[in-house]
Please model this.
Amino acid sequence: MKNILVSHLRLSMLPNKGLFWYAPIAAFAALLASPQGFAATQAEPIPAKPDQLVFKPFAYVPPAAKDHRTVLKSGVVAYLAENHELPLVNIQILLKGGTYLNPPGKEGLAELTGYLLARGGTKDRKAEDLEERLAFLAAQLNSAYGEDRGTVSLNLLSKDLDEGLAILREVLTEPRFQDDKLNLRKDQTLADMKQRNDSSTDIEQRERSFLSYGDDFYLSRFETKASLEGLSREDVVAFHRKWVDPKNMLVAAAGDFKKADMAARLDKLFAGWPHKGEAAPPVPKPNHALAPGTFLVDKDVNQGRVSILLPGLLRTDPDFFAAAIMNDILGGGGFTSRIMNRVRSDEGLAYSAGSALQSGIWYPGRLGAAFQSKVRTAAYASQIVIEEMKKLRDGDVTDEELDTAKRSFIDTLPRRFSTPVQVVGLLVDEEFTGRYASDPGYYAKYQANVERVTKADVKRQAQRLLKAESVTLLVVGKKADLLNPDPKHPVKFADLTNGKLTEVPLRDPLTMQPMGVGSAK
Model:
């Protein structure tokens, strides 16, 4: 060892190395000179068995909203995070309002407006010129309207920030909505519309919305050929001027900038808005109740898609953490959950199976289980899922199940704040959904709220939510085989829902009207 050290010391003095190499080598020599040198740097002895490992208690302090929140001169709330690791800036403008703003008969208007904002040119730039300039800047500009919000995002090099913000101002205040781009998007949407019944996944998602919220709720009002063809450029311009206004905006920005400087730039972005819009109304609430029973959609595929639905709750419910942990044990926890273990691991009936508890923001969400299985075993797999709901409701969870679920929630919390972009994105969402105002310490209390959930809490929520006898069961697949189960597992769907089974006809892809009414026997 001494010879090795001497060799390293000689190398450290070579002319091309420089004397700065000597310091770490000298420190290494001092370590060797100490009788306990190496022993002092050794980690704790490795235990004989993995279960003897001892870890320090997990502790994570999430970013505080107040450290990033800024109110601009325009009144727009912005969340800003400096990050100088890369010369990039990411800006997202969140727009209050969504597809629920579509007037009756104008379904598709918000979606068309949102798509064209960033892609239809501006007053002074044709769409092609705008696209070419963004490509030259290696910048990405996107826009869209979803169910309850819109977004306009810009990602570019920090050296081009001034030009990028100038383009963003043009897009937000003076979009061209170029006729050829508008017509092309309508043609693309119509082509997609014609394929609505090609995928059993699309059919399931659509009918799940009808069953959950009724035909008249905005989530069940789909574009039709007539509504699409009736949309004009004037409609798009009017929608933009009414709703794309600073009073409906929030900003999340992260990247290579100084916060004070970015705030000043954003003040300039929103100053002197050229048209007066309206504040978006609140997201409407459904007044439709789930109807118990089996609802069958005949689609000639050999895999049956099954959704098992129950009423959920609001995320502000005082027992939401207990309900979420209950769902994790039931089917939300992947391979550690009961549904996955029974349906996939034990029975081999599906590649994936599980449950989800929607975090109801504007109105109570849904608690649902879902899987895909061969059509002749779909009813048997459904029976297993319902059995697991009953077992969890009527029995008790184990200490291991409770601890695993809790650890899943707690240990994955830091992932939500992995990057500055994620931080400001999550915080601006808290502002948008109102949780910042009603519960600003939500994430600071998150770990404690999870840890205090007990087995009794989980059981109480299972008894409250898992009304297995009243499920709404939606199944999409080949009717003849769905109603003719595998002789090894002669389970019938109607028997799972107290004899209630209704055939739901496929809808015309262009009108969304049922293509015939019938009932299955």
Observations:
- Residues 378-394 form the longest helix (17 residues).
